[in-house]
Design brief:
The chain is an all-alpha fold and 225 residues long. The chain is 77% helix and 0% strand. It has one domain: Heme Oxygenase, Chain A (Up-down Bundle). The protein has eleven helices and no strands. Helix 4 packs antiparallel against helix 8, helix 7 packs antiparallel against helix 11 and helix 8 packs across helix 9. The longest helix is centred in the middle third of the chain and has 28 residues. It binds the ligand Cc1ncc(C[n+]2csc(CCO)c2C)c(N)n1. The ligand Cc1ncc(C[n+]2csc(CCO)c2C)c(N)n1 binds next to helix 4, helix 5, helix 8 and helix 11. Belongs to the TenA family. InterPro entries: Haem_Oase-like_multi-hlx, Thiaminase-2/PQQC, Thiaminase_II, Thiamine_Salvage_TenA.
Length: 225
């Protein structure tokens, strides 16, 4: 198995814990409390705006035109397609879009994006790919798992469009690009450098787990009750 494809196995314990987190499982069953999803939606919107900036930092470091195109394309698709679905859900929940301007970004959310932005600033392209890859990969993996596990309940599930957006086969094509690009970028790296990349990847998988936990607890930070 190639270096990039084996990264999931390196983070297996926390990867599986994320899938079994009550937020994820209840989303799959359609039983997740609306307040928890509302909290998630607002925090995730704020998260995604920062997340797209990591692609911009990657774009600055691209020496190859095709790579540059990809970074900018993915950034654009998040800013359009993915955020559009979030806005649609906000409408269903009567969340005024302007509310986002006064919603504090939770302490943990800031920690996660600050970590990715730091890798974006100081890392090379392989490290940048390693920090952003778990975001796309865990979502695809979890959404595919939920779609299959709760197939007989999917039609009545309030969160069906969320699951279907992330269990989208189009992602597969982008994954082969992610995997192949990362494998090429690590070709001449030492064992120590590769270990650093694995640690960056695993940290993002852990951050993803904690994002579910934060949303389930609706935890803005220790000073907010
Ligand atoms: C906390 C958090 N992590 C990951 C995603 C999912 N996601 C973000 S961008 C993207 C597409 C390509 O990178 C996907 C699948 C999210 N919404 N929120």
């Amino acid at each position: 198995m190639s270096f990039s494809r084996s990264l999931k196995n390196k983070a297996q314990t926390i990867w599986e814990a994320g899938y079994h987190h009550p937020f994820v499982q209840e989303l799959g069953q359609g039983t997740l409390k609306k307040e928890r999803f509302q909290f998630y939606l607002k925090q995730d919107y704020l998260y995604l705006l920062d997340y797209t900036k990591v692609y911009a930092l990657g774009a600055v470091k691209c020496k190859d035109e095709e790579l540059l195109q990809r970074f900018v394309e993915i950034q654009h698709s998040i800013l359009t397609t993915e955020l559009a679905l979030h806005r649609q859900y906000m409408k269903q929940f009567d969340i005024d879009f302007n509310e986002l301007k006064t919603t504090p970004t939770s302490l943990f959310n800031r920690t996660y994006t600050a970590n990715m932005l730091a890798v974006g600033q100081t890392g090379d392209l392989a490290e940048i790919l390693a920090t952003i890859l778990p975001c796309a990969w865990t979502y695809y993996d979890y959404a595919m798992g939920l779609k299959e596990k709760y197939a007989d309940q999917l039609e009545e599930n309030f969160y069906k469009s969320w699951i279907e957006m992330y269990a989208n086969a189009d992602f597969l094509e982008s994954f082969s690009w992610f995997f192949d690009t990362l494998d090429t970028l690590v070709e001449n790296k030492s064992v120590i450098e590769k270990q650093r990349i694995e640690a960056i990847f695993t940290a993002s998988v852990e951050f993803e787990y904690l994002f579910w936990e934060m949303s389930y607890q609706q935890n803005l930070g220790i000073l907010h009750k």
